Amino acid sequence: MKKLKGKIPVAILGATGSVGQKFIELLSNHPWFEIKEVAASERSAGKKYKDAVNWILTSPLPEKIGNLTVKECDTNLNSKIAFSGLDAGVAGEIESNLAKAGYYVISNSRNHRFDKDVPLLIPEVNPDHLELVKTQSYKGAIVTNPNCSTIGLVLALKPLQDKFGLEAVNVVTMQALSGAGYPGVSSLDIVDNVIPFIGGEEKKMETEPLKILGSLKNGKVKNLILKISAQCNRVAVLDGHLETVQIKLKKKASIDNIIKEWKSFTSIAQKLKLPLAPLHPIYYLEQEKYPQPKLHRNLDKGMAVSIGRLRECSLFDYKFVVLSHNTVRGAAGGAILNAELMLKLNYFNSIK
Ligand code: NAP
Q: I need a surface site. Which of 109, 124, 142, 280 has the fewest CB within 10 A?
């Protein structure tokens, strides 16, 4: 990375939403990026951001951002890097139009995740997949991050796949309310309740890990062959997706072997000291009632996953519990980490 001559201006698309607000919070003191533009739907465009948004975060809305006028999500943006927290109903076309016009779109939405030339990126897991960007015909580029529940699962699986190989995975999720966006699930539906269905989520969890854990050969990703079964539930927790996981491994491993792999797992994001990279991507918590969303979702800036309760399983080889912060690690924070890696590896060359 060349020495920066000042911070790089960025835009937030879908800035008024649940993920958009998290982008604003996480980027408000970022050493490399500075929010210069916020954009959302035509309902919000033209208003001051503070009048358009229903700010739901506990940290105060930064005054400078509150006074920005919300723009439309079109190619009149001045910032060449756009972080997208757009509703999936509109993200596909908006993001492709921007990429065609020379913008670098770092997206949270599902629309382009399976495009053959678009990386579905987790810097700690498949940084080499960034190479796919070079095969894109866009003047700019699109890079995506996975679904908020996929990310915790894949970070837990990656060291095990590398060391022992995975044969089968079964996962049951307990997913937080903020994962449904704002206003999300009606209070009358979720108070005193668990909803055993989240539209499209199980398919995402069963397919996204195969691309992320796949291997890049000759400019193409060859998906990992692995059986994954997922069941997804919405629970009355504000932030933090908890998942119970069962795994069958290809090679024999002891409990100590597995915990050692998790604890020692590190990656290019830590090596390059990316500003939002957690010190350790994975924390193994020994207490048998951990991890818990309320206690552990903010571990290491909300960017680490916490794992606990590794034990033998009578159906598979082992079972455990994994927790990750869905709007930080699973959305805005993950996307910012992707952009940090891209900057460090000179993927934004044309705009510096
Ligand atoms: P959200 O709270 O519903 O926010 C959606 C945003 O999209 C709002 O800013 C909204 O602007 C904007 N928007 C809606 N229609 C638009 C249009 N026609 N043109 C331009 N902007 C439009 O949703 P969210 O939870 O933040 O999720 C955003 C995206 O990230 C989704 O694709 C979601 O699947 C994905 N994601 C979410 C999470 C999570 O934990 N929440 C995690 C990973 C990925 P207005 O306010 O002006 O309507």
A: 280
